[in-house]
């Protein structure tokens, strides 16, 4: 670390090193695991289906989150943000874009699986590409708003990474937060919940419980609800009264999402898991008898 750089308020040398190490592990692990998911889709012909395209798109978004975490880790070891105010705005936009896109693709996968299991309708390429395009454009709109004054990007308490500024809690922040959260988190949580509830009912009716339908929702809430709770707390109370270390827990937990998603949506999918195995070993596994998806 640069000894000439002052420590961020509320953090010790050990805190900085520990948080930077967490970000580095999350960033590198999430990036490489999702990179394998992306490469497998591109290299293994059997994986290139419309449904798997949504998993591929999720992996791209999660690679973005992991890259964002790795940049934050590097800055943490320096003890300061080295890229200036424009770099901070770019980092905030990139982080928000990829995070919102990841949440949307999780909901899109849930919607697709509902149709696969409950209505036996298969996703078409035209629909998959339209969904992916809409998600990237829609989330880019919401991520761009703080760049033009609706909401604001600023440094997180560690001051080595940037995200939505929670410190003001003024009208500008509240009017941005509420519609953004409804459109990019609330609706998605409901889609995931009702989709897997419907699948679960279908399985019970058939007398076949093929996988744990609660896993995707539990994973989504575990990774993103701390950040959501902190953001809404900032809308009603002065978030600065909370310990800076406490406020850093939410972004640290959120950046575990890329790693969890690989296990739930790529390695947890029998077909996709077989494709990854073929990519890594050159050995082709037996094709599954059905499109059944197994969650751990």
From TrEMBL:
Question: What Pfam family is a match, any one?
Answer: 7tm_1
Annotated GO biological process: phototransduction; visual perception
Taxonomic lineage from the root? Eukaryota, Metazoa, Chordata, Craniata, Vertebrata
The entry lists its GO molecular-function terms as: G protein-coupled receptor activity
Q: Does the keyword Membrane apply?
A: yes
Superkingdom field: Eukaryota
Annotated function: Receptor for all-trans- and 11-cis-retinal. Binds preferentially to the former and may catalyze the isomerization of the chromophore by a retinochrome-like mechanism.
Stored CDD domains: 7tmA_Retinal_GPR
Q: Which Gene3D superfamilies match?
A: Rhodopsin 7-helix transmembrane proteins
This protein's membrane topology, according to the annotation, is: Multi-pass membrane protein
* Domain annotation G-protein coupled receptors family 1 profile: ranges: 33-265
Instruction: Name the keywords, alphabetized.
Output: Chromophore, Disulfide bond, G-protein coupled receptor, Membrane, Photoreceptor protein, Receptor, Retinal protein, Sensory transduction, Transducer, Transmembrane, Transmembrane helix, Vision
Major subcellular location class: membrane
Output this protein's name.
Answer: RPE-retinal G protein-coupled receptor
Q: Where in the cell is it found?
A: Membrane
Q: Does the keyword Transmembrane apply?
A: yes
Q: Which InterPro entries match?
A: GPCR_opsins, GPCR_Rhodpsn, GPCR_Rhodpsn_7TM, RPE_GPCR
Gene Ontology cellular component annotations, sorted alphabetically: membrane
Ranges annotated as spanning the membrane: 16-42, 54-81, 93-111, 123-145, 173-196, 217-236, 248-268
